[in-house]
Structure formats: C-alpha cells, structure tokens
C-alpha cells in the first residue's frame, strides 16, 4: 500500500520498535462507528482520508477496517496534538482519560498501541501536531484528500478555523464530515452553519454528524 503522506512526514515508520508492554487496548470514542463513515467511504472510494482530532483512534480504526474490508488502497492521516482538549483539562474525569505521566498525556502511545493491536499500521499514519500547523504542512506538500473528518476542538473559533483550513485540502468531488452537531456543542453548530451559509454549500445532517460535499 502506498504511504504517500507517511513517507513525507516520517523518515521511518512511527510504529517501528514501539514497545507497548504493560498497555491494554483502549479505543475510547464517541460515535466512532456512525453509518455516515461507511456511506461516504463507499461513495468516494478514498485514497486519502485526513482526520482532525483523533483522541485514541476509535474513528480512524473504524474507517481503517472499512477501507480494508472494501479492498481500498487508502491512507488515513490522523492529526492530533495528543494533548487533550479544554474539556479534558477542566474536569477530574477528563484528566483521568488523559492518563497523565509526569504531567504529560499518554494519548499518543495509547493511539499507537490501538492501531498496532488492530493491525492497521499500514493504513493509519499519525501526525502529532496542532490542527492549524498540520494544515499548513499538508498544504505545503500540495496534499489533497478525498475525505476530511473534523472532530478536534469544540469551541466556535476553533471549529471554524479547522473547517476553513481543511476545506481547501479536500479535492473536487470530495467531502468533509464533522462531529458533535448538537445542542451540547453550540460552537460546532454555529461554525458548521456559518461556513455552509458563507460558501453556499448544503449542510447535510445525519443525527449529530454533519457533511459538506465539494461537488
């Protein structure tokens, strides 16, 4: 399988010599297997998916298994700082999920372990970066994806910035999926609606997922 972005970002495999001794499988996620993923993947037959906001990799693992089962030659690039979001740092439960060691979240290592556990290291490429910096780097390399999935910050300015930065990276005919379109996250709803209205794009809602298509 071609690993075009991985070879641009990493001189060697990020999974090489990873020692997950003592770790256990923990693909914690929310709505990570929603039918919209299969719907858009089957429609687009993507060669490249860019996920913005990965956490422990649950949605990427689901998409990886989908493309694997469908026999698609697809790379999934997972952009995340792996430092958690605001909601994780302001609650005790959220801090527990970060699995802090010496004050630093261990999310990246949990992500690597989960990917290796599911045997998807030839499909999933980690990109440990802020979403803004990652978008600039992908643009520098003229990377175009077939499908982008936005699920990082939940505050209005952060969501709008992610949409604005990653929409130009979606090829013509491609699509963008977003998460958390619900009253629990008004910033997400506002950002998705504003971008849709400003650009004259239909905003398709599937439960709490939203989809924009670049037709």
Automatic annotation (TrEMBL):
InterPro entries for this protein: SAM-dependent_MTases_sf
Segments forming a coiled coil: none
One Pfam family of this chain: Methyltransf_24
SUPFAM superfamilies the record matches: S-adenosyl-L-methionine-dependent methyltransferases (SSF53335)
PANTHER family in UniProt: S-ADENOSYL-L-METHIONINE-DEPENDENT METHYLTRANSFERASES SUPERFAMILY PROTEIN
Protein name: Methyltransferase
Species for this entry: Streptomyces filipinensis
């Amino acid at each position: 399988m071609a690993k075009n972005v991985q070879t641009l970002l990493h001189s060697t495999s990020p999974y090489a010599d990873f020692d997950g001794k003592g770790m256990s499988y923990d693909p914690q996620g929310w709505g990570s297997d929603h039918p919209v993923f299969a719907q858009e993947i089957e429609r687009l037959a993507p060669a490249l998916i860019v996920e913005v906001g990965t956490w422990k990799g649950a949605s990427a693992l689901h998409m990886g298994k989908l493309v694997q089962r469908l026999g698609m030659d697809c790379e999934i690039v997972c952009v995340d700082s792996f430092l958690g979001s605001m909601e994780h740092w302001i609650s005790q439960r959220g801090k527990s999920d970060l699995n802090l060691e010496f004050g630093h979240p261990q999310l990246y290592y949990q992500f690597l372990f989960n990917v290796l556990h599911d045997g998807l290291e030839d499909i999933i490429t980690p990109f440990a970066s802020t979403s803004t910096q990652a978008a600039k780097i992908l643009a520098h390399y003229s990377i175009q994806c077939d499908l982008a999935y936005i699920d990082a910050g939940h505050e209005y300015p952060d969501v709008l910035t992610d949409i604005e930065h990653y929409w130009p990276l979606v090829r013509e005919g491609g699509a963008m999926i977003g998460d958390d379109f619900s009253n629990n996250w008004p910033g997400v709803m506002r950002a998705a609606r504003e971008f849709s209205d400003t650009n004259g794009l239909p905003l398709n809602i599937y439960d709490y997922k939203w989809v924009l298509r670049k037709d």
